[in-house]
Amino acid sequence: MPRVGLNQQTVVREAARLADEVGFQQLTLAALASRLGVALPSLYKHVRGADALAQKIAALATAELATEMTAAAVGRSGGEALRAMADAYRDYALRHPGRYPATQRVPDPADPEHVEAGERAVGAIVAVLRGYGLTGDDAVDATRALRSALHGFVTLEAAGGFGLPRDVGRSYHQLVAGLDISFRSWPRTGG
Amino acid sequence: MPRVGLNQQTVVREAARLADEVGFQQLTLAALASRLGVALPSLYKHVRGADALAQKIAALATAELATEMTAAAVGRSGGEALRAMADAYRDYALRHPGRYPATQRVPDPADPEHVEAGERAVGAIVAVLRGYGLTGDDAVDATRALRSALHGFVTLEAAGGFGLPRDVGRSYHQLVAGLDISFRSWPRTGG
DNA sequence: GCCCTAAAGCTAAGCCACCTAGCCAAGGTT
DNA sequence: AACCTTGGCTAGGTGGCTTAGCTTTAGGGC
Q1: Which of A84, A175, B33, B37 has the smallest number of CB atoms closer than 10 Å to its CB?
Q2: How far is CA B2 from CA B5, B37, B52, B150, in A?
Q3: What is the mean pLDDT of chain B?
Q4: Which residues of chain B make contact with A183, given a CB cutoff of 8 A?
Q5: CB-based contact, A181 to chain B, within 8 Å
């Protein structure tokens, strides 16, 4: 039996690719194993199990998303930064329909890379909000609002929740424009 | 073998109750059957299978949510209606953590009650937006924004995505306040 | 160059979920 | 009373995930 030469990274990357094709929920160890040219139990040499694999995909996807959000916002500020970051966010979700849902998994404290990726993602948002003068509790509230709006939108879009013919991209831009207005007039609690 | 006297409604209602206890994803036909005092295959006399059951729970939950949203908005308008409806929305999600995710399933065209429930839910939102003078394409965009924001928030909240100690209810109220501001200054495209 | 060992692969087997087939009894209808 | 619909059942099959335990590869030390 010739060795395929897998390691955790190759397994997780291929799993992420497969998830993008078939959907995160439909990702199965059996399909992944056959894709990698290996019998199913062999995967356990590289990954602890299905849940651990999901967590690793989450760490990967969160890191990728954080990187793209950060890249979009760099060199911009205020509404421009917000729009660029929001576009990058939706872009990622559309390009990676399988990985995206994984990004919402709460980071595993036992996985430093996952934790760090989550912090980078939130950090990107906080940096943009600072451009609106939002800090402290205000920034926490605004971060939650921004995450909710973007996540909710791309989730509903992916689920086919927007049935009407109205262009979805336009709706997204309106949503982001609304966030811009909200953040500019966000009530300052001084927290 | 004494008959238990099940029918589709009792099965679906108990399934919804069970989902609220264990989570929508963790709902299993085996657990439901044992809860109903019946062997697993007997459920198939009332429900076509696991997916059909999920769809029926979705129809039930969507109808309940639509009713509560409508009730909250009745007799109110503008920001007051928006806040009441948003509170009802989050309330429902918190009270019914198992049913809530089902409400995001796109209505089954073959199930008139499901379709009608979905229309009532959207109708409640549209009615509130009319109080802001939003109609046509503007209303479509605003509906999508509102759904995204509320759904995203309660989803992240349920997933434990809000780690910081900052009070979640306050953040939600800020989010809704932001939506109020956005809708008041929503760009009118005259669509 | 040989051997030893860690690790990467394998087969076998068990658990649990969903689903189908086909049987039997309960209970209302004629 | 006989009948037939229907709601329950058992048995059995599929496809997930997982563990146990074996084999062989491949690399490092002598």
Answers
A1: B37
A2: 9, 11, 27, 46
A3: 97
A4: 178
A5: yes
